[in-house]
Amino acid sequence: MKKSGYRTTFHIYFIFLLTLIGTILSAILLFFLLITVQKPDGSYVRSDWPKSFTENFSEQILFADGTPRVAQAGIELLQDNGVGLQILAPDGREAFSYGKPDSVSGFYSAFTGTVQNAGEDCVYILYFPMKISTITMYLNGDRFSGGRPVILTLLCVLFLVVLISGALYGFWTSRQLKRLTASIRDISLRRYLSNHSRGAFEDLYAGLNALDAEIRASDRLRDETEKMREEWISNITHDLKTPLSPIKGYADIIQDGDAGQEEAYRRYAAVILKNAAYMETLIDDLKLTYQLENGLLPVNREHQNIVRFLKELAIDILNTPEYEDRVIGFDSTEDAIFYSFDPKLLTRAFRNLIINAFVHGGETAEVTLRLSRIDGALLIQAADTGKGIGPEEAEHLFDRYYRGTGTGEKPEGSGLGLAIAKSIIELHGGTISAYGSPGAGTVLSIEFPVS
Length: 451
Hints:
Strand content: 15-25%
Distance between the termini: 63 Å
Number of strands: 15
Radius of gyration: 50 Å
Number of helices: 11
Largest sheet: 5 strands, mixed
Structural class: alpha+beta
Shape: elongated
Strand order of the largest sheet: 10-12-13-15-14
Oligomer: single chain
């Protein structure tokens, strides 16, 4: 950890140093560009070169009979540097010109000088093909008499300040990175404490806090699921063993029995068949759950009248001897609502919902199916008059491996019936929810999208 911190500090320090060096080089380059100009031949000279050139050019101006002329060397200087010349007589008239531009635009800078002839001043103007600006500054002579040492001192102080601040910032950043690394390690070890630090790393800590909360929630969900799975395995193992005992016992009786007991044997065989069917149902639920969970179950949709479909399903359930004394009410706003669905799968889903209401609602519980079409959706409600459920039970009612706890007794079944119904409904693009209250029955609400 210390080596990592030192490397981080050195890295940040190195970045500060490179930034400082880059800033100084940029300042030097800018200063160089400000105090130099490029001549027509491509060479660079100081920005005061036009002024010096103008002052020295007076030596190239000659007078013959009072008329100004330029020596051959002066003409060559003008040609080599692309400079134009205009000489004015004392009365302001142009007395001589060479290479003078037609108009003085922003691309030319004019410098003036004077030369005497017979006691009179003649003004000459030189036109340079470059843009030169003159800036005049008035400084305190007492304080700026040692200007160079002052500038050097300021630069040294600035350099030291940047280096020291870079080192301090590097150590501070290294410390913060250590804290972030430790926080990430604590999250992985599930011992992270929420951090509400302010400053440059506030967003990072907020992200770590959110990540830790999500991981803890995921851990809780995993533990709950694992606990439910273990309970379900225990229950399903017990349920599978329960029918095996009478099957084995009655089979032994039949095997060792005497002739003339056919009536008893028929009763024993009926018990064996009942328990075998129960085991078959459990195994079938396990298989169907696996297929639904892994998307292995094909959906064979048919466009049918779902109102008629549910009516026939209700009649089939009531024709079962086990439920022939029960009541299933039916209420639909329309006689025909067509929907594309898999009849086999929806039969399994709604059969599970209705029978679950009978089993858990009590012997006198009644079920009512209500169908309606609302805002482009098919709404189906299965309401019972049973013992009802609380909010916590409603939240987990469709979870796999979950069994209701309202009665205090362990009901028969795999605990997968409602989970299978929910998966089948969602496979058709629908949703299912439950609500109710203890003693006031339960309502299962299913919604399918229809055109």
